[in-house]
Write a structure and sequence with these properties.
This protein is of the alpha/beta class. The protein has helices at 4-57, 91-110, 123-129, 151-166, 198-203, 220-294, and strands spanning 75-81, 115-121, 137-139, 172-182, 185-194.
Length: 295
């Protein structure tokens, strides 16, 4: 049985842990709100790009761009977003499981000869994906890309992916990340980044665009080729910020769970401490009473 001193030490340790997890929860919550604010600020830019594409796609013209070129898939790159830091629950584990599922699906779709390049973003994810590196699965770390990268670095990364697709280094580029829905709900998502789907772009057309036709200068196809890289950049920005928000939301939940567990354990230890203390006092009183009777 633990002594009063040992219990007191354990109570102090658990109380300190509870304070630490509560503080970390508050910090993660602030970071999550900052990320969700960035998501909201990205909407006007994406809306502007969508409006331009909408006005272009409602015309009867044919469009050509290397970014929408569909070709035989022999090499594919998967950009997978994780975290640099731990203490975020099953965040990285769930994303890694999705990656393994995605690789199996791609093997079934394109065959076992498919060359797969996994590009991890985040130290924890990088450490995990290097374990599955093989002859047919290459892992490539981009040094300047992590969860704290600036928008300029993200733009450079997007340009790197675009140029490799255009140069036929990759025939397809996918992104896998945790999409932020709310503070309590994040959805594991895998989507095709390149080639851009003409069908998906057409589905995203604003129906109001047909009611307000535009005159394009110099020509619609030139503008289309200028706007598509902006659309690609906006998509990558949204993916990056959404992943960051999801990471912080997962950390908030993990710290809340840890704080609740610490509070529950603290209550149990206090109860045990009080019982042991009461027992010790009762034993001392009995010793005093017994000594007086002997006299």
């Amino acid at each position: 049985m633990a002594t009063l001193r040992e219990l007191k030490g354990r109570i102090g340790s658990v109380a300190s842990t509870e304070k630490t997890t509560s503080a970390m929860k508050m910090i993660s919550s602030a970071k999550m709100h900052k990320a969700t604010g960035q998501l909201q600020r990205l909407k006007p830019y994406r809306g502007m790009v969508r409006d331009v594409l909408s006005h272009l796609l409602v015309t009867d013209q044919e469009f050509a761009s290397p970014l929408i070129e569909v070709r035989e898939v022999r090499s594919i790159a998967i950009v997978i977003y994780g975290s640099d830091d731990g203490l975020c629950g099953a965040f990285n584990i769930n994303i890694f499981k999705k990656l393994l599922e995605a690789i199996d699906t791609l093997r079934k779709q394109y065959g076992n000869t498919l060359d797969i390049t996994v590009i991890p973003v985040g130290k924890k994810m990088s450490k995990a994906v290097h374990k599955i590196e093989s002859k047919s699965i290459k892992v490539e770390d981009v040094p300047y890309m992590n969860t704290r990268s600036t928008m300029e670095q993200l733009t450079d990364f997007t340009e790197l992916l675009r140029s490799r697709f255009v140069d036929h280094v990759y025939d397809r580029v996918d992104v896998a990340y945790m999409q932020y829905k709310s503070s309590s709900r994040q959805l594991m998502t895998q989507e095709q980044l390149l080639p851009l789907s003409a069908k998906a772009l057409a589905q995203d057309v604003d129906p109001r665009a047909a009611a307000s036709p535009c005159i394009f200068e110099p020509d619609a196809n030139s503008i289309f080729n200028s706007v598509l890289p902006l659309h690609l950049r906006a998509t990558m920005q949204e993916v990056f910020v959404s992943s960051t928000a999801s990471e912080q939301a997962s950390r908030v939940m993990a710290m809340q769970t840890a704080s609740d567990n610490a509070a529950e354990l603290l209550e149990e230890l206090n109860l045990e401490y009080n019982k042991l203390r009461q027992q010790s006092i009762t034993t001392e009183l009995l010793d005093i009473v017994g000594g007086q009777v002997e006299r």
